[in-house]
Amino acid sequence: MDVSKPLGGVHSRLARRIAIWIFAFTASAGFMFALFAYAPEKQFLRISDVVAAPFKATKIPQCGNFTGSNEIWAESQLKFQHLRDDKFTIAMQTYKRPKELNDTLNALLAEKIPSLSELVVVWNDLETTPPENYKSKYGVPVRFRASEVNSLNQKLWPDPAYETQAIFLCDDDIYYKPKDLEFVFQSWRKFGRRRMTGGFTRCAVPEPSGKWKYSFCSTDEGNNYNLILSGLAFAHISFLDYYSSEDAIPKKIRAYVDEHFNCEDLAMNYLVSLLTGEGPLLVKGNDPYVSYVPTNGISTKPGHIEARSQCLNDYNKLFGCMPLVNETAHIEPGVIIS
């Protein structure tokens, strides 16, 4: 095409070049508009596609002694993609703490949480029959699931009746306020699907001896954290499925948790960070989360810190590496801070 003809009145070389550039840009823009307007939709990756299918059957990274089955992990990643991702399920573990349980249920169900699909109480008291299922005043089904054994692993079981990809793991003595819980869920959808995402941070800290110590994340060490405990955390159901699978390391982890009656939350962090290479994500609400101080909780027993530190070091031996990833960023309403 002879682009000089429309420019008959332009005699300056510089002006001619500018006019040619404008013409070329206009033609290119028109071509790109036509391409996007008329090309088949399937040729383009939409944001909704990314949100709906965050797992692409990635392989298990090499990490020390960890030689997991890629087939089992691939199945865990792909088998739940038909479940809803715009709603979430609460899996709340309880054991002989009726007051804390009732207070927490009343607080969570007193207001409407738009994305809450179901609240499942994991009933670990084998000596007492759980209450009847019911619906909250906002129509949320509350289901009491009686465990076959009193095991901390029960909360991490991928219940076949779950209808959502997002599972909010919590205990009966700690909770986000309803509006904040909705905010945390939406933050999980956008940023946290491949992470343990919640509000209960802890740290695994290296010691000069080469061992690791369980810590409450002192501010003297900066804003680092590498654990989000499952007492208040979202996890994708695929991680629960792999944790509960017959792969060698998860089986050993579950046996360890049952033997020590502790540290299932640390194990979940190990697995998630190993499988994704990503650290956890701290999300704060407008208000601090509510935490009761139980009189008979595991964390109140003497030697709790030492026992948790022992879990870290035992897991390091089991995995043959330290997969936890330090993070500094966190999300709160209106801001992302790193």
Automatic annotation (TrEMBL):
GO molecular function, one term: glycosyltransferase activity
Pfam families to which the protein is assigned, alphabetical: Glyco_transf_64
Keyword line: Disulfide bond, Membrane, Transferase, Transmembrane, Transmembrane helix
Record has Transmembrane as a keyword: yes
Subcellular location: Membrane
Residues that span the membrane, as ranges: 20-39
Gene Ontology cellular component annotations, sorted alphabetically: membrane
Residue span, Glycosyl transferase domain: 88-332
Keyword Signal on entry: no
Protein's recorded name: Glycosyl transferase 64 domain-containing protein
Species, as recorded: Conoideocrella luteorostrata
